[in-house]
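Thread amino acids onto this structure.
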């Protein structure tokens, strides 16, 4: 058995994910709010831009396949992070340009968000696949949890610090803060990833020795696996619910609760802090109870979905009580339940990536990453479209945003039902070809 990555190596990989999150979060939260509130542009515009960067990530299976069959993943990760840094800095410049020349600013933003999508897809897919192929099986799920916790920590730390430096807002200040964050994040990621892959061989023999077919053949083989296909559908629907509030929350707080850009950035930090707390709780509960409670992962996944539905329902009516509503506490609770749901789904994803053989880890991870990215793009864009449409039909901004939060709550209820079928109750999965009978309950299991 080849030596897998040590915990110190895993922590270094987690730092790469932290750096990735630090660069992405300013483009999806702060710049989105500035476009809608400070520049008075339609919410659909940042929704379309963020949707564009997620649409580009449909290439994730291709990025994963590129390094399957024994090729090194480090160049894909470093190259992706460099492209991401360039795109995120360009997005800040484009946002500043929109105030003076909207057409030129939107053209620049389109290019910048395309680069962000390529960078996230290349770096993120190969980073997670490196974990799936080079980390021993007993460490894989906790390693994925640590990596995601570090990404959310990057979200929370960046939004917290940036919120303080962005007030009083100016376009020049936005560019300076974003450029500093991206330069620091890129440097950290390069230092963290250097030398790791060279020292540790894949823990799965198939990962480095299986012949590599054409991309279309590999993707078709993975899609024929019944468990992989079912899990893809679950990821898509659940992440659609998860992402729909991303581009809505900060403009909602600015318009309904009259918060400044710095205050809404700090509110986003509270949400990401809640996500971080939820992930840590799941990691602790899994370590203490997994051997005694076979259905723990599925129960936590459902709990996260139902809790998120409840907090979104509270936000839906919060505009009627704006003067005394505990907005920060509710947003923190939303993040908490999102974290509980997300890390449960991620643990299942990492366990599934290496199943089925044939060295298709990158394609599987890319397929699920693409499903997540498409859902995130659609969720963010449809959320902003719904806000614009509701705003035309309903004169009250609070009621318009509330109707969108109510729809998101329903989506989370549906996701909780899907989790009961897509996430198993502690049995080891078997990947089944398309023709395998699906009326056998054992064919529906996904590992906890």
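Threaded sequence (448 positions):
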């Amino acid at each position: 058995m080849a030596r897998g990555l040590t915990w110190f190596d895993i922590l270094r990989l987690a730092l790469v994910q932290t750096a990735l999150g630090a660069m992405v979060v300013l483009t999806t939260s702060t710049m989105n709010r500035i476009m809608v509130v400070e520049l008075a542009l339609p919410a659909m515009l940042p929704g379309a831009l963020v949707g564009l960067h997620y649409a580009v990530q449909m290439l994730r299976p291709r990025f994963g396949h590129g390094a399957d069959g024994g090729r090194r993943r480090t160049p894909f990760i470093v190259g992706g992070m460099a492209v991401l840094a360039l795109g995120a800095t360009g997005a800040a410049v484009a946002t500043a340009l929109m105030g003076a020349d909207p057409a030129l600013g939107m053209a620049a933003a389109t290019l910048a968000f395309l680069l962000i999508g390529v960078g996230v897809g290349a770096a993120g897919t190969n980073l997670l696949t490196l974990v799936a192929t080079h980390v021993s099986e007993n460490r894989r799920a906790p390693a994925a949890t640590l990596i995601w916790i570090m990404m959310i920590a990057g979200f929370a730390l960046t939004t917290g610090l940036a919120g303080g430096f962005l007030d009083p807002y100016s376009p020049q200040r936005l560019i300076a803060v974003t450029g500093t964050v991206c330069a620091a994040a890129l440097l950290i990621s390069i230092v963290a990833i250097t030398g790791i892959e060279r020292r540790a061989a894949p823990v799965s023999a198939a990962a480095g020795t299986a012949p590599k077919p054409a991309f279309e053949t590999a993707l078709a083989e993975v899609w024929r696996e019944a468990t992989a296909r079912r899990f893809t559908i679950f990821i898509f629907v659940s992440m659609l619910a998860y992402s729909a509030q991303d581009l809505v929350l900060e403009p909602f707080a600015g318009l309904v609760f009259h918060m400044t850009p710095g205050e809404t950035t700090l509110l986003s930090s509270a949400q990401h802090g809640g996500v971080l707390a939820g992930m840590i709780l799941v990691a602790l509960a899994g370590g203490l109870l997994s051997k005694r409670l076979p259905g723990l992962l599925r129960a936590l996944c459902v709990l996260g979905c139902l809790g998120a539905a409840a907090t979104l329902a509270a936000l839906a009516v919060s505009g009627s009580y704006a003067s005394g509503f505990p907005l920060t506490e509710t947003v923190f609770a939303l993040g908490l339940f999102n974290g509980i749901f997300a890390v449960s789904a991620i643990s299942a994803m990492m366990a599934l990536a290496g199943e089925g053989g044939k060295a298709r880890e990158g394609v599987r991870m890319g397929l699920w990453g693409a499903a997540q990215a498409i859902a995130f793009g659609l969720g963010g864009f449809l959320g902003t479209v719904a806000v614009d449409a509701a705003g035309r039909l309903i004169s009250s901004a609070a009621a318009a945003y509330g109707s969108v939060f109510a729809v998101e709550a329903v989506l989370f209820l549906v996701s909780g039902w899907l989790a009961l079928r897509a996430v198993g109750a502690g049995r080891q999965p078997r990947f089944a070809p398309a023709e395998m009978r699906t009326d056998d309950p054992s064919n529906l299991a996904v590992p906890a």
